[in-house]
Amino acid sequence: MSYDKHAFEPFAVAVDLAVFTVRDGALRVLLIRRGEEPHAGRWALPGGFLRPAESAEDAAARELAEKTGVPPEGCHLEQLRTYSAPGRDPRMRVVSVAYTALVPDPPEPRAGTDAAEARWVDWPVGESLAFDHDAILADAHERVGAKLEYTGLATAFCPPVFTLGELQAVYETVWGTALDRPNFRRKVLATPGFVAAVGGEPRRTGGRGKPAALYRAGGAVALHPPLLRP
Amino acid sequence: MSYDKHAFEPFAVAVDLAVFTVRDGALRVLLIRRGEEPHAGRWALPGGFLRPAESAEDAAARELAEKTGVPPEGCHLEQLRTYSAPGRDPRMRVVSVAYTALVPDPPEPRAGTDAAEARWVDWPVGESLAFDHDAILADAHERVGAKLEYTGLATAFCPPVFTLGELQAVYETVWGTALDRPNFRRKVLATPGFVAAVGGEPRRTGGRGKPAALYRAGGAVALHPPLLRP
DNA sequence: CCTTTTATAGTCACTCTGACCATTGAAAGG
DNA sequence: CCTTTCAATGGTCAGAGTGACTATAAAAGG
Predict the structure, then answer these.
(1) Which terms are listed as keywords in the entry (chains A, B) (predicted)?
(2) pLDDT tens digits along B121-141
């Protein structure tokens, strides 16, 4: 870096969170309704400013815990990209580091001091969001869909123990396409490290149909071969 | 975002550039030798602070043009990620948005006012870089290697018109592995939009061996099917 | 008991891939 | 001039992976 002999301007640095979950076969995103100007009354992504001794990762984890009540260990949190257009906030110059989070079982969100309301909203969101949050959310969704292909990320949407049907529902919900069940099963089980069978062969019953075998995340970060979209 | 009712600290915001090129079968990265403290005399990534009315993308394009003399249209420039650890700069709190750039034919770099020296250095760099630039550079290299698999990015390393041998050399150089020439050819030509044959069937002669047919970038951003690493 | 529903097993044709071998066309060297 | 060398190009072949599809198993609900 070349700070020397160059002036620099101070900026406000914030984090914005695109928090996704899958519930009842629908993809949902956590939004807050803004209580103050600008954009009062409109939906926006949760977020907040960095504190003096805090990295953007720390701030994102803190905001996630504050807004959802989910501990940072229980969910996937990943930097998306940084948005820095000069006019993106009408009040002042704000550079925002956006994060994508995936949570398995969504508790009811908490409205913070700054938000009139916090809620899980079905994707795609009907109305347009505050600031440039439409673009951030679209980028986040695209990233999640792409990462399902070549990483084991889909298990982050699932509880610790899940069935292959639940895992398939994650793919179908995020991608918005139906998948062939036997073929999905074959690919997942043929990919080393994607899922691991739960010992003792317990099965989930209670619903309709034949009881399903249970699996947990296999710990693999990259899928070989990848599970490509149709 | 939830600025309201929260204090916020001012930060300095900078961009750092990981500029790669392929020359003589070697992957090279553009580095500057720092002229001032901290880390005076050590290699670092080129970069600089955002100006008041400038986005990070604008600042990265400006720095790239200043340091390399390459016009922004002629090369690939893409945001990598943002580094914001509190102690990453000993002088003050600096949040840096890192960019990866790929340039085809490297002109001699210009030493800026802040750099004692600017040079193309072979990858991997022997000595450790200033600040957290080792981590940034490693992340950039990993990203470039991954993007070669599923995007047509490799053509960004090549001149406007190139041979399949040159394209293959890009893959081999970035990945550090040898590829089978007939198979590489088959896959590239079978991937729609990756490359387009130059009309009139001209061929490049002058070197050893049979003259090679010429191609230009096909304009495809995503490769279907992808060209996976061995 | 019979139907519905979901999980699981298996088949088959087609494509893609990696590992090869063969040929072509130019330059280099005697 | 002829031979060698070298890279580009064309082709083969077996095995893995995939999509489409059929069949069976095990539960719930009437």
Answers:
(1) Hydrolase
(2) 999 999 999 999 999 999 999
